[in-house]
Amino acid sequence: MPAHPLFRLRQPAIALSAFAGAVMALAAPPSQPPQLSPATPASLVGTCEELGAKLGTLPQTTITGATTVAAGALTVAGQPIGEHCRVLGRSYAHVSPVDGKTYAISWEMRLPKAWNGRFFHQGNGGIDGSVSTANTTFGGGALTSTLLQGFAVLSSDAGHSNAQGGPAFGLDPQARLDYGYQAVGKLTPIGKEIIATAYTKGPDRSYFGGCSNGGRHTLIAAARYAQDYDGFLAGAPGYNLPLAALANIFGAQRYASVATGNPSTPAGLETGFTLAERKMVAAKVLERCDALDGAADGLVQDIRACKQRFNFMRDVPTCSGARNGSCLTHAQKVAIAPIFHGATTSNGERFYAEFPFDGGIGGGGIAFWEFTAPLALDSGAVGAIFKVPPSALALSNGPAFSLGLDIDQALAELYATDGTYTEAAMSSMTPPNVKNLSAVRGRGGKVLVYHGMSDPIFSVRDTEAWYDGIDRHSGGPAAGFARLYRVPGMGHCSGGPATDQADFLTPLVDWVEHGQAPGSIVATARGAGNPGGANADVPPTWAPNRTRPLCPYPTVARYSGQGDVEQASSWACDDGRPH
């Protein structure tokens, strides 16, 4: 066997010694990331109006307002938020060469009078397009928020206004890029400069977070702007958003093939898989998989074991007569099974992840994502924002676009470029080197992700694949800097028959600033009387304040065999193998 080229080099002895040392270094365990210091509080200097006057030199930015918000004007779960300054602005305005409209990144920043020393950049959902209140909350019925905890919080519309035609902003190539990732890069230094002016010091620690598209923004920030942020909190991260949106259209076409109503309307499309039928399938999943975690409690903790136990074609009754909600026809099974198996091209090549069978499939929020979104949201996103070239039909008739779409051609167009759109959606809308977060790890940053097992639009399986990837490609075990928490029964970001109320932010801050790696996180069901708001999907057979441990992936919660089944203290996280 010929020698490796490196060993054919004739080097002086000292060089060979250095080479040997380098080999030993490569073989050594990865170095431990640094421990970041905690943030220290500060107070707002001067008045909000005075601050607004000082910000006139921000690059390519116009300040459009700076006002004081009184204590208690905003509340979270009945808790008053303290006095703070609200600054409004527009940055990086440009006139589109395509549609002639003026686009800009509109934003607001809320700066507490009593500041905790931390910056939080809020990623918003959907296609953005509006400036949501800079007051980030996480999980269902949140009992706290970033602003309530004293963060300085920045929120933006990501570079376009829905008042200009919703997804029609995708006709402008720069607006596409701002939505994809550039708005974050442009606003990050602006936000930090505002903080430094307001408090006479910059943020000690900086965080980025959001759910859904906000989760996508978060993982992109981790990949592209690792040096600017210390902690990343992503809920239901649609980091493969263009593929997920196309997969949802794939699903709509399958439902349309067995719909008994007009499939171009959400109600008609839903006749392909009705609420009664979804609840029946959920019940069959629970029959086979509920007790795999040691207790029949209406939750499937171990979806990996459930995949081996539950068979959709076998375990769901096949109708022998008329559909009545207690069965599915053979045609329905043939149409629906591929949606759960993962969307494919015409030749059977899968382009998006499978969706697990979980007890939350009958949840109240499922219908919107399955039957409304592909006709009213994914049509505009795929057709006008992601595809090259964009489609006029997607803007004029979303249902016709989605139900008639050639999936194979559209998939190719998600990766396409031309003279106008020089960066493809699968580049601008997704994290580069998504499986390599070594830059986050290397600087001591931390990533915390949570995802509902019954999320119908962004698959938890896709997020598992992301986590498995960073475990292999980030210079050290993923558990040393990233944790994924799957929420049984939960739909998209919240809701479903689930314990969906949890504080994910405090564990992340404790990990970033104090080195306290999170284990299980206790989550609560939102039954009647919950201060964050009741969840209509909580079954009446559950204790209204049921708690469960959310376990770091790949571990799962398992009942200990003793103690109150409604309490998290009776459950423990293990490796997921049945005992």
Helices and strands, with pairings:
Elements lengths: L4 H4 L4 H15 L14 E2 L4 H7 L6 E9 L5 E2 L2 E2 L3 E12 L6 E11 L1 E2 L2 E5 L29 E5 L16 H27 L5 E7 L1 H12 L6 E5 L5 H16 L9 H5 L4 H15 L13 H7 L2 H4 L14 H12 L24 H11 L1 H9 L5 H5 L1 H6 L3 H8 L10 H4 L9 H5 L3 E7 L7 H14 L8 E6 L17 H10 L6 E4 L22 E4 L5 E4 L11 E4 L5
Parallel strand pairs: 8-9, 8-10, 10-11, 11-12, 12-13
Antiparallel strand pairs: 1-7, 2-5, 3-4, 5-6, 6-9, 14-15, 16-17
Task: Summarize this structure as a short list of keywords or feature phrases.
alpha/beta, disordered N terminus, 9-stranded mixed beta sheet, 3 domains, 579 residues, two-stranded antiparallel sheet, 20 helices
Quick structural gist:
This protein has 579 residues and is α/β, with parallel strands linked by helices. It contains 20 helices and 17 strands.
Describe this structure in words.
The chain has 579 residues and is of the alpha/beta class. The protein has three domains: 43-203, no CATH class; 245-415, no CATH class; 440-574, no CATH class. It has 20 helices and 17 strands. The chain has helices at 5-8, 13-27, 48-54, 173-199, 213-224, 241-256, 266-270, 275-289, 303-309, 312-315, 330-341, 366-376, 378-386, 392-396, 398-403, 407-414, 425-428, 438-442, 460-473, 505-514; strands at residues 42-43, 61-69, 75-76, 79-80, 84-95, 102-112, 114-115, 118-122, 152-156, 205-211, 231-235, 446-452, 482-487, 521-524, 547-550, 556-559, 571-574. A nine-stranded mixed sheet has the order 2-5-6-9-8-10-11-12-13, with helices on both faces. β3 (75-76) and β4 (79-80) form a beta hairpin. α6 packs across α12 (366-376) and α6 (241-256) packs antiparallel against α16. The chain starts with a helix and ends in a 5-residue tail after the last strand.
